[in-house]
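Homework-ish question, so no full write-ups if that breaks the rules, but can someone show me the predicted structure for this set?
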Amino acid sequence: MSQYDLGITCDMHVHLRDGKMMELVTPTVRQGGVSVCYVMPNLVPPITTIEQAVEYKKQLEALSPTTTFLMSFYLHKDLTPELVAKAADEKVIRGIKCYPAGVTTNSSAGVDPNDFTPFYPVFEVMQDKGLILNLHGEKPPSDDDDIHVLNAEVKFLPALAKLHKDFPKLKIILEHCTTKEAIETIREINKGKNAHEITVGATITAHHLWLIIDNWAGNPINFCKPVAKLPQDRSALVEAATSGEPWFFFGSDSAPHPIETKARHEGCCAGVYTQLHAIGYVAEVFDKQGKLDNLKSFVSTNPLAFYEITEDQVKSKDTVLLVKNANEVPKVLGNSGEINVVPFKAGQSLNWSVEWK
Amino acid sequence: MSQYDLGITCDMHVHLRDGKMMELVTPTVRQGGVSVCYVMPNLVPPITTIEQAVEYKKQLEALSPTTTFLMSFYLHKDLTPELVAKAADEKVIRGIKCYPAGVTTNSSAGVDPNDFTPFYPVFEVMQDKGLILNLHGEKPPSDDDDIHVLNAEVKFLPALAKLHKDFPKLKIILEHCTTKEAIETIREINKGKNAHEITVGATITAHHLWLIIDNWAGNPINFCKPVAKLPQDRSALVEAATSGEPWFFFGSDSAPHPIETKARHEGCCAGVYTQLHAIGYVAEVFDKQGKLDNLKSFVSTNPLAFYEITEDQVKSKDTVLLVKNANEVPKVLGNSGEINVVPFKAGQSLNWSVEWK
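A: Not a homework solution, just the prediction itself:
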């Protein structure tokens, strides 16, 4: 078959930034084949008030009126249970993102993942109101505790299991998971559960379906956090993404950075920009596995179900048709010369493109 | 004690390049506290003839008359046993460096480390003549064989063991070793041997005593091949270097690159430049371990013995005094604006400096 109806497509982890960068990348959500997206709150300052979230959403909708933007708060000590309850009741946010302090871009205001108990009152409200907790699942690096970029996610998994045990009805997502062990943990938690009982899921990015450590060693464009790991990890991610299992779904973690912050000898920013061809990158991996029939589960059915998104919440009823059609990734995505972003697989050709119906 | 006599110091793995870069870095061998150095042959084109080696040495000596330069050939299919015998007899080279094809800077002319047998006639001659075989001990990356930057050295170790078995009297050095497994292999090979029976050794760099994967993830200045590995690997290297065992000695693999080839979004060059403070970087690690008494073994006694360097072969009888004295690493090492190299730990202060006596 050379066409696949993907329905209403979702990308449950997008970085749309602000200012000129926001203007550049926000329209590429739809261009990349995505209808519904879940927007990360790690601006400077982070999104922690109703006013900020409402204003940010308004700006995004002005840039792409047919895209559905689901908003989030940044988990922070200033977030009160009352504020979270109000934001949920007013349907301003769909969830709250938790960044461990210091692990990735704009995470300096993050929390200490060795002790989530200060946030338990907030988690109680989230559980009651049906908000989603999105976890950047890495322990911060530590010489004393032998934590480094390769094992930071695996070392975090017990904290995920404990949160689930303490809040069994709280919907939790392990974002951008990168390891075989993370995949196994998600399956273990969900073993024997019916679809409506699932409260713990995981997003998988496009680039982690492609990359291993060799691809970012010495290559700033492919460098992100969590870092891409070993071949067996990539294999586990590909197997999980293409499995159709309802707890795995798409979150690109597309993270644009200006080219000059990538080409820096003294340290380059972490993040891979994939938004402009989000569905195309993923489709090619599914195709190679002979699993294109499961792509709709990964990018549409599963995320819509986990996020409990009803059709009336979606701004455009347009659906996506995946078409076998050569698709060139530009060498750079530019904004009138002011901001330039180098996309993942820049200058390469993909086999699949998207059409809106 | 705040002074240590290090004797005639050695760095058995230096990259001095050619042209303007050679002019910039060659004097820094002595400035960094090194008297005798073993010069890598991976120029473009590589050093594979007597004429090239003689001419290269002449250029280096003109730039630093008091430094002893030991020259090497680049292992290559064009190297005949006759040529190698002649180069040994005329004392033009001290050894031959073997690069697996494609693993690091200027290694495209390298060999296939899955099969060294085409080079066995050359190794026979080297063994007879007492030349040293210097191995870049990594298997090339391979998806099919599950070889990546983290395990490439460990996957190479059986090839080292086999070479030693087939040529028990050939002196072999595993260059810039980076893993716990490599350290264990070197010890296993040498178990129960007397000093004069040692034929297999390993060099350890300055930067691998400091770095782990987190330090080069997103930091081009700290990116080199073999890549720095995990905390337990660094611990094993530090323990081995400071142990005083005769089969471990210093080879900095100082590898200068112009700053613009480090600050490149599409891929940066592999190599850490350490020459200007070579002894200082190492001394600080030994000091932290309370092992400064063993530093002379690592940088002088062990390499002089393994390379069988007699005093009459050393151009200057000057010895190095290590002095406790703050020592600033410049932010950049420049050549009249033409070439700029960012050193390891640029802008930081070291605790030890060197004086020539």
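Now go work out the reasoning yourself. Hint: The interface with chain B takes residues 141, 143, 146, 148-150, 212-214, 216-221, 223, 227, 230-232, 259, 262-270, 342, 346 of chain A (CB under 8 Å).
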